[in-house]
Amino acid sequence: MNLFVGNLNPDTTDAQLIKMFSEFGEVLTAKIVKDNITGDSRGFGFVEMADKFHSYDAIDNLDCTFLQGNIISVKEAKARTNDKPAPRKRTFVPRGNSTRTFTPRTENSRSENTRGDYPRNDRPGGDRPRPDRFTKRF
Questions:
Q1: What percent of the chain has pLDDT over 90?
Q2: Sheet harboring 65-67: ordered strands across?
């Protein structure tokens, strides 16, 4: 059974993981994952044990314990899946009338009143006072 070991100290080695997990059963492999570019530890690794009952025993006893100054987490490793859906592409979908075309503004269209026949203050209800949100009302 494959186990995930997280929050490892960057100085932790594969041999230290083997020694730690071998107390609970036979360890087949231990691998600390390293960064491809720098070669430094990424802070997690995997330990494969021969018996799943020994693996569960290791999880119960080693999860949330100290290893070289860090509290490590030990969990059952999940299988990697490549069944992830493709990322969604953001495409423009017109709403409502899809035959509407875009007309760029011109100098003449900017001066025209595009909000109706009334100037702003002459609109019905335009002379209502705006509520002041910074004053308290009792």
A1: 56
A2: 27-34, 41-49, 2-6, 70-76, 65-67
